[in-house]
Design a protein that fits this description.
The protein has 346 residues and is of the alpha/beta class. The protein has eleven helices and 13 strands. Helix 3 packs across helix 4 and helix 8 packs parallel to helix 9. The mean pLDDT is 95. Bound molecules: acetyl coenzyme *A.
Length: 346
């Protein structure tokens, strides 16, 4: 019997959609972070802040910053090369490239096209998606549709950000939170695994103004005035974003578990969006998770938006914390507002 129809003490929600005998599994992950480290002590020299404030309010100790000549597509390509090597996939095999990012190299062409060029993956279709910090789960769910429907066999999904390019280095409320990096996954049908069991996605556009970048789009194109007014940097209402994050992540994770008829105790590792240690702890507590079920690496990288859970997933796998057959819960939240949760049989 194929994994999509066997009963391994959890429910495969895809069976209800008639996607039998076909799964969307992650056959390789990879990540890349730039070399340059910016510590909290370095930030003390830029804005009025302290290592004590940043560590106690967020858990972040340092973040990576891309070089001036290193762009989102470069970070994405490095992560993709690692994921391809672990999956044993060469560029010619890739059917589709999806890059999730809020910091594309340019408004167009898509960063995915630039990654296609750098990898030499010339058979692949390529496009970007934008769901801020929720982008990686949105991209996984999109990729899954192509694989379980047998449209494509091999999809490359990348979450990549050069957030240092849109951070206002004069705003202590935001500049301490973010970092640069990329994480990638190769998705394929693997007959021995259920793979991505379900992905919950949600959005609330009525709260778009909690976290946004006002300048650079059609509403406020670049001009001398927009630059002077610092409109090309991200802005965030931290407190409201925090409250919404905890609520939305808990609800999405609970719904994903419900769909698979799983109790939280069955999850080997929860990989949450790495924005704030206090958000992660609050979500873990509300889900009834044990602290050791939560994977945390934000002390090293800060919030890398769409790259965040992808980098964390790669580190969790590399560290041996995740073995084939384990159940993982990914849970994310970001600007939009957007959120999501995914259950994966690794
Ligand atoms: N150093 C020192 N003091 C600071 C700093 C800083 N870096 N930043 C803010 N403060 C001050 C504030 O000015 C405020 O001072 P005041 O009381 O005199 O006005 C005080 O610290 C407390 O600020 P709060 O807003 O109450 O701090 P809070 O506990 O809410 O923490 C934080 C702020 C870390 C931003 C938190 O709200 C947070 O993590 N929010 C969620 C972020 C998030 O999840 N984003 C996810 C999506 S990201 C994406 O999609 C790209």
């Amino acid at each position: 019997m194929s994994p999509a129809t066997t009963n391994k003490k959890f429910k495969n929600p895809r069976a209800a959609h008639n996607f039998q005998g076909r799964t969307c599994s992650i056959s390789g992950v990879g990540s890349y972070v730039p070399e340059k480290i910016l510590t909290n002590a370095d930030l003390e020299k830029l804005v009025e802040t302290s290592d004590e404030w940043i560590t106690s309010r967020t858990g972040i100790q340092q973040r990576r910053i891309a070089a001036d000549d290193q762009f989102t597509s470069d970070l994405a390509t490095q992560a993709a090369i690692k994921a391809m090597s672990r999956a044993g996939v060469v560029a010619e095999q890739i059917d589709l490239i999806i890059v999730a990012t809020i910091t594309p190299d340019m408004p167009f062409p898509s960063t995915a096209c630039l990654v296609q060029q750098k990898l030499g993956a010339f058979r692949a279709a390529a496009f970007d998606i934008e769901a801020a910090c929720s982008g990686f789960i949105y991209a996984l769910e999109i990729a899954q549709q192509f694989i379980v429907s047998r449209t494509y066999d091999t999809v490359l999904v990348v979450g990549a950000e050069k957030l240092s390019s849109i951070v206002d280095w004069k705003d202590r409320n935001t500049c301490v939170l973010f970092g640069d990096g990329a994480g990638a996954a190769i998705l394929q049908n693997r007959p021995d695994s259920h793979g991505l069991l379900t992905a919950v996605m949600g959005a609330d556009g009525t709260k778009a103004d909690l976290l946004f970048m006002p300048g650079g789009g059609s509403r406020c194109p670049a001009s001398a005035a927009s630059v002077t007014s610092r409109l090309h940097y991200l802005r965030m209402e931290g407190k409201e974003t925090f409250k919404n994050a905890v609520q939305a992540m808990q609800t999405a994770a609970t719904e994903a578990l419900r769909r698979c008829e799983l109790d939280i105790s069955r999850i080997k590792l929860i990989i949450p969006h790495q924005a704030n240690r206090r958000i992660i702890d609050a979500v873990g507590e509300r889900l009834g998770a044990k602290p050791e079920q939560l994977f945390v690496n934000l002390h090293n990288y800060g919030n890398t938006s769409a790259a965040s859970v992808a980098i964390a997933l790669d580190e969790a796998v590399e560290s041996g914390k995740v073995q084939r057959g384990d159940l993982l819960l990914l849970v994310v939240f970001g600007a939009g507002l957007t959120w999501g949760a995914a259950v994966i049989e690794w």
